[in-house]
User: Which sequence fits this backbone?
């Protein structure tokens, strides 16, 4: 079986689940020419935990983990099956070096960092999906190491998608269409993209002292999924930009893959 790419998707607003746009079209386009995955592993910014948790339920629920949106958004369902078998396989890979990994069989499911993307990529919801949490207690390099440990899955028909936003500052969002990006947001996104293209991940793994990082990443939850993508990359693989842009002044929609 050929190796599947690894992706980071800038997921943006939950409303994109109801409002197709150029970003959602790019997500759909990114899988058109891929073999159908055996299963999908989602690493979402919206499951931020102590310890690493793996959704091991056979039928994950669709979680509407937001507030203040139209009723029709809460009615969206993504009824993909789960894969307890894949969850256990990931547990076995991680446990020797990350003993805090835990199988979760009932309390979570697929949050909007997962289903709002997958509904465009695989609208039939017929591929098993396992979601993995982000352990807030880990050091930055440990997130990369988890990605490295999971690399073998890519040669087994597993599509691995990390979901977050490279720039995610809700406190400075400006609502509306065609809002110009904040200068610092554009600068940080360009800085990130140039380093990813060069393969120089070190300043991005330890980002705290880089210019505008405190504005771009006021909290790490939406940024950390990218570190798993770095770890999942094989040395010879090249960067593919899937889409980019900055919405509402301070939300980066940069999405990329390695293949």
Assistant:
């Amino acid at each position: 079986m050929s190796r599947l790419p690894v992706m980071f998707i800038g997921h943006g607003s939950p409303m994109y689940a109801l409002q197709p746009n150029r970003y959602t079209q790019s997500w759909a386009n990114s899988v058109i020419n891929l073999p159908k995955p055996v299963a999908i592993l989602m690493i979402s910014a919206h499951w931020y935990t102590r310890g690493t948790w793996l959704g091991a339920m056979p039928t994950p629920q669709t979680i509407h983990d937001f507030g203040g949106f139209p009723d029709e958004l809460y009615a969206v369902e993504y009824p993909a099956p789960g894969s307890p078998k894949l969850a256990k396989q990931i547990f076995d890979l991680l446990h020797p070096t990350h003993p805090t990994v835990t199988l979760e069989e009932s309390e979570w499911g697929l949050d909007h960092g997962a289903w709002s993307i997958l509904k465009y990529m695989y609208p039939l919801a017929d591929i098993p999906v396992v979601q993995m949490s982000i352990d807030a207690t880990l050091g930055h390099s440990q997130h990369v190491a988890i990605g490295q440990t999971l690399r073998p899955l890519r040669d087994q028909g597993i599509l691995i998608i990390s979901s977050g936003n490279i720039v995610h500052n809700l406190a400075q969002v400006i609502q509306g269409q065609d809002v110009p990006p904040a200068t610092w947001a554009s600068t940080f996104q360009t800085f990130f993209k140039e380093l990813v293209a060069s393969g120089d991940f070190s300043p991005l793994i330890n980002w705290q002292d880089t210019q505008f990082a405190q504005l771009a990443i006021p909290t790490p939850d939406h940024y950390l999924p990218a570190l798993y993508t770095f770890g999942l990359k094989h040395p010879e693989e090249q960067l593919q930009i899937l889409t980019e842009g900055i919405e509402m002044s301070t939300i980066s929609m940069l999405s990329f893959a390695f293949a």
Residues 110 and 216 are 26 Å apart (CA to CA). The longest strand covers residues 39-49.
